Amino acid sequence: MEQSQVLSASLVLSALSDGYEKTFLLPEFQRVRRELQRSVMGFCRSAVCVLILLMYLHSAVVEEAPDEKTVRVFPNDSALLPCSDISCNETVLWVNSSSVVAWCDPSSCHWTEGYQMSHSHYLKGNFSLNITAVNPSNTGSYTCRCEHTSIQEVLLQIINTSTVKVEFDGTAVLPCSVNCSGLAKWTTQTDLLAECDQTSCRSVKEGYQMIHDQYLQGDPSLIITEADFSKKGWYTCNCDDTHLCLDRLQINPLKTQVQIKPGESLLLELDVLDPVEVIYSETGAANQTSHQFCTVDERSSQVTPQHTLRTSLELTGLNESDSGVYTIRDIKNKENIHIYNVTIQGDNPDGEKGFWLPMWGFWSILGTYFLLFVVLVAVIVCMCQKNKYLETQGHRPNEEDSQNTEQEPLATTDELVDTDSSPTANSDETGSGRSEQCIPLCCLSENTSIS
């Protein structure tokens, strides 16, 4: 009877073990089962065995459902999905949407494109999954399994990012179209800038603000006024402790035209605190090339913070061959800060560059020549009229008339008028009409007078 009770208890234990095998941790449960079987077969009665069994089942370590972890990364960045500090001597698999993306066993590791697992880490109990470049198709829920047992759940998300460019001293709006029922706040790596809740908005730092009506409508965007190079960089919007948006503010580079003479110095303003490089590009060259010829890694310790942004780099002893484009570039962020278009030109003592005439000078010279041409035409017309008048009055110059002219004085204007009005005028001899007897003013000699 005792043996049958022991056998019955053993069967109950086996049945229960088969039913709970998937719920309890296998190594611990197997150890418990072996201890119970040895005890039962030795001296226990059936009632005592059942009681001991229930006590062990209650105190056994139960496998809890794995907590889900969230990993948020930027687009195209790498992501590490954690699964470590767990004992598993069998095959470890990573599953995403019912598809196995990577797996490791005691001999080797395998993975699909874009995923990686380290076999050396697997042997040490670290089963983490590395995603080399995250894109939207990689997002979702991932499960780390030891054979058919879930070990870790990981949710992979991509942080919304955008880049906003603005002119120097302009106004920028960093977008974030995500609903937030809690406290929405914008921060940099070191500072809290502005925040909004269901009742109001508050600007923590001058030059940054949020609009409460927009926040209530699911648009907690940040407005930045008078954006300069000290405000460029990354900005994060959080809703309580959850990242909503990550925006990058860029300032368009300043552009300056500079014209100096050979031998003079060129001052290049350093508008940022980050290390910068100066890149020179020659203008007008057949094969235009750019090269770095100067870097500024840090400011002098004697320069106070409020004057740091007003420091400059001086280039001395420049000549005409140094003309070109000088670009101040932020080394860390790979952004152009200031572009100088430099022209170095002397006084041209040798006339090597030719004579340059402004447009107003050209039109002045052209007008002068035109005026001279008009005067010349007027003189020619006047002379022709004078000769024609003399021919009409019968005073064409000849040898006889020239002798009479030397002996007789010139007739006055009154005499000429009387002669013209006489019926015995020389109109018959010359065949000219009255219309040709008028004397042009330009044809009167110095001794001619008009009454």
UniProtKB/TrEMBL annotation:
Statement: the UniProt record of this protein carries the keyword Transmembrane: yes
Transmembrane segments: 360-384
Residue ranges constituting the Ig-like domain according to the UniProt record: 66-157
Taxonomy, superkingdom: Eukaryota
Signal peptide bounds: none
Biased composition (Polar residues): 419-435
Keywords: Membrane, Transmembrane, Transmembrane helix
Annotated region described as Disordered, given as residue ranges: 394-435
InterPro entries assigned: Ig-like_dom (IPR007110), Ig-like_dom_sf (IPR036179), Ig-like_fold (IPR013783), Ig_sub (IPR003599)
Keyword Cytoplasm: no
Protein name, UniProt field: Ig-like domain-containing protein
Originating species: Astyanax mexicanus
